[in-house]
Specification:
The chain is of the alpha/beta class and 461 residues long. It is built from 13 helices and 17 strands. The longest helix is centred in the middle third of the chain and has 16 residues. The protein starts with a strand and ends with a helix.
Length: 461
């Protein structure tokens, strides 16, 4: 097992900044305001040849009510999982009562604890660290997570006290990446927790609970996955806070990084333009998709018929994706999602043979010819695969730039139906071959045959 290092401390002491420095990423959302991080966020780091996992946690404020209570539970779970704990304090704020409360809690967890004196650049270390000895954690170690000074020495000190890594461990998150997206408060985090079978991310009856994109590796039926819980994306006009803007950007980035996207809809609310926009963004990004209509339990039959008609009317461009009606809270229908996820991933990454694609193209052209362009028929000769996830089919012919959109959709539907591609969009790219004789000059007529010579001899007479 890889060693796990948990970062804990008060809000806004620099835990997420240190997380980004250790993992050499920008996965943790950083803003100059407290309470940005709420869920546990895992990342892979490395010191020399030794990899490790680092866990970012929400700030511990001592106010165990509402969302703060759930954040404290997440932090406690991270401490229980960790092999070592980095307790960050703010050198510029000095020691606070919250720091003392956290230190008392950490002393009971029976884990190696290291006190990191963050934001210490430009300060007299002997003066600012003196009061932190009263915490009873040990000697404060000055670091500056924003610049990285002192961080390498701190991590090496942590590793000297940890057991050596076992062979065969890897810090990489491998498997099918599944992004769970949707508007705020539709049940994304509840669905993630139901899939994992534990309270892995915060699920609270308040829009905007999730702020960061949380990557969670897990296994199911000997298959490896990486589940990505994202923040809810609202309409741009309704986004006022800067932190929410960054959360929306992280959610859209998660769509681009995923193999399969689960679009979560609320059965108790009308399908909005924002739902259609999110679905369209995922399709434009080429992601395989599964639609999950949540909170399906307790609906009357006429309400269920209405939501199905709304799906057909407003999300007709998702006709290739499987739709599941689920209850994330009670678990009904959640297990069926993985059959569709597997089908969508297999279709998106399948290798397609050139002879099969060319035969489908020939049959489609024979059944329905392309239109005429300036009196000449568009000719489509052969097709081959140009990429995966999504499947890209390249069709070669002449005058392909004039192929109308309706005929392109006809070919895409033919390829999808014959190849039995489910859950993934298809892209068709048309290429025209150049005429090899367009720059050649015609030879003189007298060089061709006896007939031309006789005609020339007659003209001379």
């Amino acid at each position: 097992m890889l060693p796990v290092i948990a970062l804990v401390g008060r809000p806004n002491v620099g835990k997420s900044t240190l997380f980004n420095f250790l993992t050499r990423t920008r996965n943790a959302l950083v803003a100059d305001m407290p309470g940005v991080t709420r869920d546990r966020l895992y990342g892979a780091g490395r010191v020399g040849e030794r990899p490790y996992l680092v866990v970012d946690t929400g700030g511990l404020s001592g106010n165990a009510e509402g969302v703060d209570a759930l954040m404290e539970q997440q932090a406690m779970q991270a401490i229980d999982e960790a092999d070592a704990v980095l307790f960050l304090v703010d050198a510029r704020d000095g020691m606070t009562s919250a720091d003392q409360a956290i230190a008392n809690m950490l002393r009971r967890c029976n884990k190696p604890i290291y006190l990191a004196l963050n934001k210490s650049e430009g300060l007299n270390i002997d003066v600012v660290s003196a009061e932190f000895f009263a915490l009873g954690i040990g000697e404060p170690l000055p670091v500056a997570s924003a610049h990285g000074s002192g961080v390498a020495d701190l991590i090496e000190m942590v590793f000297d006290a940890l057991p050596p890594e076992e062979e065969g461990d890897s810090a990489e998150q491998k498997g099918i990446r599944i992004a769970v997206v949707g508007r705020p408060n539709v049940g994304k985090s509840t669905l993630v927790n139901r899939i994992l079978g534990e309270e892995r991310v915060l699920a609270y009856d308040m829009p905007g609970t999730t702020r960061d994109s949380i990557f969670i590796p897990f296994e199911r039926d000997d298959e490896r996955y990486v589940l990505i819980d994202t923040a809810g994306v609202r309409r741009k006009a309704k986004v006022k806070e800067t932190i929410e803007k960054f959360s929306a950007i992280k959610a859209l980035q998660a769509i681009n990084e995923a193999n399969v996207v689960i679009l979560v809809l609320d059965a108790h609310e009308e399908i909005s333009d924002q739902d259609a926009w999110l679905a369209g963004h995922a399709v434009d990004s080429g992601r395989a998709m599964v639609v999950a209509v949540n909170k399906w339990d307790g609906l009357a039959s006429d309400e269920r018929d209405w939501i199905k008609r709304e799906l057909e009317r407003k999300l007709m461009f998702l006709d290739f994706a499987d739709t599941h009606f689920i209850s994330a809270l009670h678990g009904s229908g959640v297990g069926n999602l993985f059959d569709s996820i597997q089908d969508a991933y297999e279709s998106a990454t399948r290798k397609l043979n050139t002879p099969d694609l060319t035969r489908i193209l020939e049959d489609a052209v024979s059944a329905h010819q392309p239109p005429l362009v300036k009196g000449r028929r568009i000719k489509l000769r052969y097709a081959h695969q140009g990429g995966q996830n999504p499947p890209l089919i390249v069709v070669h012919g002449n005058q392909t730039a004039a192929v109308p959109d309706s005929y392109q959709r006809y070919l895409m539907n033919k390829f999808r139906k014959i190849l039995k591609l489910k859950g993934t969009p298809i892209r068709v790219d048309f290429k025209s071959g150049e005429n090899p004789f367009k720059d050649k000059k015609k030879p003189p007529r007298e060089k061709f045959g006896k007939k031309n010579k006789r005609i020339e001899k007659y003209r001379k007479k």
